[in-house]
Amino acid sequence: MSTFQSLPGFREFYPEDCAARNGLFRAWRTAARRQGFVEYDAPVLEPLELYQEKSGEEIKSQLFEFEDKGGRKVALRPEMTPSLARLVAAKAGSLRKPLKWFSIGEMYRYEKPQKGRGRSFYQFNADILGEPGVGADAECIALLVEALKECGLREGEFEVRISDRKLWFLFLAALGADKTKIPEVLAIVDKWDKDTSDVAKKKLEIYYGNKTENAFQKINAFLRNAGDTGEVWESAVQDEETKFRIGDWSELEKKLEDLGVKSFIKRDLRIVRGLAYYTGFVFEAYQTVGTARALAGGGRYDDLLMKLGGVDMPAVGFGMGDMTVSDLLNELKRPLTDEGKLAVYLVIGGEKERPEALKLVGQFRAAGLSVDYPLKEERFGKQFKTAEQCGARLAVILGPDEAAAGQVKIKDMLSRVEVAVPNNPGLAANVREIVEKGLSA
Ligand code: HAM
């Protein structure tokens, strides 16, 4: 074993792991493009300030941060959203809106490595910018559902729980907190199940003073019930703003129904999201088989572009990690793969045939076929075994007999049928056709 090990929470990808990862990326890309999203990317290393103000305490405490050789304070990206906001804000005037953008990239968070969570992971991000209406929220949530379906997950295996930070803002402010501090109070609510009552009360005290006990009880009651139906929140706060907001909910749910994804959706106001920038609907996808773990999360963040780039542009989107989705697919025995199978393995009789065999390799590759061959002299049997192990569709054989007859032999590795065909200028096209159709007896 090597004395050099990879760092905790960082993964290595052997070819089969890469094939699985590429299969996942392909599913994400397919789903995003099918809904008209276009791909972008941004730097992996960013100025530290980008995350300091806007991402929320938890992510800030998990940053991989250091000073570069020029004395700049930098951080590896823990998420994509601040970079996206900066990119879009910088060119806001010239971009046709609404923007439907997606990206797939590696993120870094100094978390405790555990099943489904690493210190480096891949994240699929999809966001719509420049559209304030719930149509954009619905389109993002629909993509979240479709992307998970494209990965191979089915109805009943996951659900998207939708909540609303706007309703939470109204509720928490009505209990007596300063409006500007509500994102901080929501961070306390986000950790409600992890903290003891005493810890939660102590944290709340900063915002509620002598009204803390009342606030604690109301929040607790709300959290206990809000996973149920809409009636809970309709009765929770009843001012005009809330009623108006409930109209937005109906509109969102109608759109999700029209887009054909309503059966995957559930209201759940217990979700508040750990990131500080969300301003409206928020949502998380959970697996509903095996351990209930989060597969993705997102929401509306209408102020972030103003804060990062001075541009007033509403936005909504989500991020989906690769780890929990792949774990789930493996548990369900539906692993993804994207192995580019070899079309042809060229079996070479001996060194005398090698020059002609290499010419065939060149011709086949020029015809767009993937081709491999032994780099030095090998027994026939070993070559066939390699062809099998590579998953080659065909073995093309050039031995002394075939060479003497001006032919090659083609063997279908699945049906085991063999034919001899002339080695003439039409051979590459002939082989290509056989790769597609196969040989049958
Ligand atoms: P997030 O909830 O922090 O949101 O992360 C979204 C997803 O990324 C999680 O549900 C999980 O699948 C994956 N993820 C996060 N941390 C880890 C980790 N340490 N290991 C493995 N997977 C992880 C965001 O990042 C927002 N920026 C998403 C967003 C985009 N909101 C609007 N647009």
Question: What is the strand content?
Answer: 15-25%
End-to-end separation in angstroms reads 49 Å
CATH A-level architecture of the largest domain: 2-Layer Sandwich
Helix content: 40-55%
Structural class: alpha+beta
Number of strands: 16
Number of helices, counting only DSSP H or I runs of 4 residues or more: 17
**Might you state the CATH topology name of the largest domain?**
BirA Bifunctional Protein, domain 2
Largest sheet: 8 strands, mixed
Gyration radius, to the nearest Å?
A: 28 Å
- On the 0-100 scale, what is the average pLDDT? 93
Tell me the quaternary state. single chain
What form results from the Cα inertia axes?
Answer: elongated
According to CATH, the homologous superfamily of the largest domain is Bira Bifunctional Protein, Domain 2
Small molecules bound? histidyl-adenosine monophosphate
Total separate domains: 2
Description:
- The chain has an eight-stranded mixed sheet with strand order 1-5-6-11-10-9-7-8. A five-stranded mixed sheet has the order 13-12-14-15-16, with helices on both faces. A three-stranded antiparallel sheet has the order 2-4-3.
- The model has no long low-confidence stretch (mean pLDDT 93).
- It folds into two domains: 15-175 and 237-331, BirA Bifunctional Protein, domain 2 (2-Layer Sandwich), CATH 3.30.930.10; 344-437, Rossmann fold (3-Layer(aba) Sandwich).
- The chain is of the alpha+beta class and 441 residues long.
- The chain has 17 helices and 16 strands.
